[in-house]
Design brief:
With 523 residues, the chain is α/β, with parallel strands linked by helices. It has three domains: 6-199, Class I glutamine amidotransferase (GATase) domain (Rossmann fold, 3-Layer(aba) Sandwich); 208-396, 3-Layer(aba) Sandwich (Rossmann fold); 415-510, 2-Layer Sandwich (GMP Synthetase, Chain A, domain 3), CATH 3.30.300.10. It is 31% helix and 24% strand. The chain has helices spanning 17-26, 41-47, 85-93, 189-199, 208-223, 236-249, 267-277, 289-296, 302-323, 336-341, 379-389, 393-396, 416-435, 488-501, and strands at residues 6-11, 30-35, 51-54, 80-83, 97-99, 111-119, 136-142, 145-148, 154-159, 162-169, 174-177, 227-232, 253-259, 283-287, 327-331, 369-371, 444-458, 461-474, 482-483, 505-510. The strands form four sheets. A nine-stranded mixed β-sheet has the order 2-1-3-4-11-10-9-6-7. Strands 14-13-12-15-16 form a five-stranded parallel β-sheet, with helices on both faces. The radius of gyration is 26 Å and the shape is globular.
Length: 523
């Protein structure tokens, strides 16, 4: 991406650093997130950022050894924006002072949640479009606080508990805010970022049309005249990756669609039909249901399920790669959030919430190199690229579907009977959502079949069948999510249809857990 103006986000461990990158990408600005410990003098010289943003973080700058950027970042002559912990870093590094709050052993006043910032008398171009109503709502999340600003800085905004809520040194284009403009609780935050990138001279040249041309050129350069196999799931990511690679190298690409017996109703026919009929891409339909379901028999632990499925995917790809003469590459639909989450901020092992089969390289035994043309993109950018490539709307707008498929929507032991019940219930649920015109309002919706049977009454007779849980969430990128607020009429109608149309289910529940504390999927 060296042909684009680049913005560097130095990550100090904030939980919302990804949102900074998303806000900038929405402004057609190319940016990358890098943990602070990876940002060295040599890195800065090679990266050549047009501007730099310091993220928030959980540490205290008053602690010896706390995360800091290299001193050379302040000598680049480019605009810098410090956010929350990033503001405190700037003040401490440049001659100001930060006092510890209660969390870090000091006695200062912490500030968490909504707050209101009022402007100072002097105007600041960074704040164009702000304070039209006299004050701005922002989101604070800090324990420490700035007690003395650095030389050259002035105050441009205050809040009740943050007298230095907005500070700047306009001569050097250094800006620092104590709040988080990237979260939606700071409603006018996007305007602040837009002003910052305008001040930095960004041209807004990051578009999916440009990315398409650049990615095609890079794929051709990487692959040459050799062959690529692509693991095709039918989801948005792998579909866009396959069409993009096919545009670059044509019949050198062979897609492998693995039917592991854990797909939704009619999914295999739909995916195979689209790629064979619409794109004429060489496609192997690998029916491996017996292999996967056989290996999963008796397995109930969710991590074992995921690891088993991931291993079998690799084995199946290996088998077909061996049959394709000259195949030297495996293509994956890895996205930028996958890449970010696979890099530990602290430099040590991160807590494993779930294993991801598409991050971390390939087993050496495969002898294949990776082609990952989407690894710089967020999900919404992938959808925009899909539209640029002409994929049908029904595929671009599909809800995400996990690689392990229905295995992680079937808590407990997996059986063919439970999978068949689950497929039918899921089909009814999605049909209901589409009929009510709600599909595009929802990030992801599915049914989970629960590892419990309940007593019911149907036709004056006793039933003893499975319970299921409906799940539907709204989200921007899957990092956080809220449950979708269906009406009780919709839920009642849907429950009635599932119980009447799906043999084996006699009780329907609705999961109203947000993420966090839950995850979107059940396992």
């Amino acid at each position: 991406m060296t042909q684009h103006d680049r913005l560097l986000i130095i990550d100090f461990g904030s939980q919302v650093t990804q949102l900074i990158a998303r806000r900038l990408r929405e402004l057609n600005v190319y940016c990358e997130i890098h943990p602070f410990q990876n940002v060295t003098d040599a890195f800065l010289a090679e990266f050549r950022p047009r501007a730099v943003i310091f993220s928030g973080g959980p540490d205290s700058v008053t602690r010896e050894g706390s995360p800091r950027p290299p001193a050379s970042v302040y000598e680049l002559g480019v605009p810098i924006l410090g956010i929350c912990y990033g503001q405190q870093v700037m003040m401490q590094d440049l001659g100001g002072k930060v006092d510890g709050g209660k969390i870090s052993g000091g006695g200062g006043t912490a500030e968490f949640g909504r707050a209101f910032v009022t402007p100072a008398d002097e105007r600041l171009p960074l704040l164009d479009g702000w304070f039209s109503g006299g004050r701005e709502q922002v989101w604070m999340s800090h324990g420490d606080h700035v007690s003395r600003i650095a030389p050259g800085f002035k105050v441009y905004g205050t809040s009740p508990n943050a007298p230095f809520a907005i500070t700047a040194d306009p001569e050097r284009n250094f800006f620092a805010v104590q709040f988080h403009p990237e979260v939606h609780h700071t409603p006018n935050g996007k305007a602040l970022y837009a002003n910052f990138v305008r001040l930095a001279g960004f041209r807004g040249d990051w578009t999916m049309g440009a990315y398409r041309a650049e990615a095609v050129a890079r794929i051709r350069e990487q692959v040459g005249d050799r062959k690529v196999i692509c693991g095709l799931s039918g989801g948005v990511d792998s579909s866009v990756a396959a069409v993009l690679i096919h545009e670059a190298i044509g019949d050198q690409l062979t897609c492998v669609f693995v039917d592991h017996g854990l797909l939704r109703l009619g999914e295999a026919d739909e995916v195979v039909g689209m790629f064979r009929d619409h794109y004429n891409i060489p496609l192997i339909h690998a029916d491996e249901q017996d292999l996967f379901l056989g290996e999963l028999e008796g397995v109930s632990d969710p991590e074992v399920k995921r690891k088993t499925i991931g291993k079998l995917f690799i084995d199946v790809f290996q088998k077909h790669a061996n049959a394709i003469e000259g195949a030297e590459f495996l293509a994956q639909g890895t996205l930028y959030p996958d890449v970010i989450e696979s890099v530990s901020f602290s430099g040590g092992p991160s807590v494993t919430i779930k294993s991801h089969h598409n991050v971390g390289g390939l087993p050496e035994k495969m002898g294949l190199k990776l082609v990952e043309p989407l690894r710089e993109l967020f999900k919404d950018e992938v959808r925009a690229l899909g539209r640029e490539l002409g994929l049908p709307d029904k595929f671009i707008g599909r809800h995400p579907f996990p690689g392990p498929g229905l295995a992680i929507r079937c808590p407990g032991e997996i059986t063919r009977d439970k999978l068949e019940i689950l497929r039918k219930a899921d089909a009814v649920y999605i049909d209901q959502i589409r009929k009510h015109g709600l599909y595009d309002e929802i990030w992801q919706a599915f049914v989970a079949i629960l590892p419990v049977r309940t007593v019911g009454v149907m036709g004056d007779g006793r039933t003893y069948d499975y319970a299921c849980a409906l799940r539907a969430v709204t989200s921007v990128d899957g990092m956080t999510a809220d449950y979708y607020p269906f009406t009780h009429d919709f839920l009642g109608e849907t429950a009635t249809r599932i119980i009447n149309e799906v043999e084996g289910i006699n009780r329907v529940t609705y999961d109203i857990t947000s993420k966090p504390p839950g995850t979107i999927e059940w396992e």
